[in-house]
User: Fold this.
Amino acid sequence: MIRGRLVALSRVYHVGSLDPADKGCQGESYEGDGLSISVHPDAWIAIARLGGLPTWAADIGPMRVVDGHGLVATDGLMKWAAAEGWVVSIPGACRLAYYDAELECMTSSLFRSRSEAEREAEALVDVDSVELDEVVAWGSTLKLAERMLRKGGCGDQPEVGIEQDVATAWAQEHGYEGIWWNDQLDQTRLSAPRGVLFPVALRSVEWVDEAGNRRVADPLVADQHRPEIRARWKRLERQSF
Assistant:
């Protein structure tokens, strides 16, 4: 059985607009139909280049926010996702990993086959510790793409990090009000703790900006994005087969 562990948060911040019409104006969102939150707003201003945008603060102490990394590490999460139609398995997928000297860490990509990964490996220049491994990989379904408001991707393409999208979907489906990713705080590696408040929670949160202005964020009406997602998905499916 999958069990979510609650995270204790009190004051959180959102950098940017609270208007759902502005969703995605800084690039594709990774929060789905939720609102991004952090406890290190200055770090995220630097990482995401959000200078000049307002910073809002709110207290969310009583809310049920689940530990995202804990969910990803839980046995059974992807089995649940496959059974519920969120993902499809991709047999024969291969992970290409190598040491990135600039980031000073290993980085990886997923490919549909070993031959695709080998071709990519041959094109790499000035990298060390190249590794190729066949892995169990997953691709998104249209159901997950619509939930996460993803305009790219296609079911036959393995996706790095799809487990985080699945964890977000699981948390929403099981009544949580948000999800938290306690990533390492390291701006040089574009990393900082982050989270999402789901639409069900937004109307009960009052935000205050630096000037003392107060506002409640309206939940995003995700339906307005879905026709574009479906149309793009169909184009990608035709290109893939």
About this structure: The two ends are 37 Å apart (CA to CA). Helices lie at 41-47, 68-72, 77-83, 114-123, 142-148, 162-173, 199-202, 226-240.
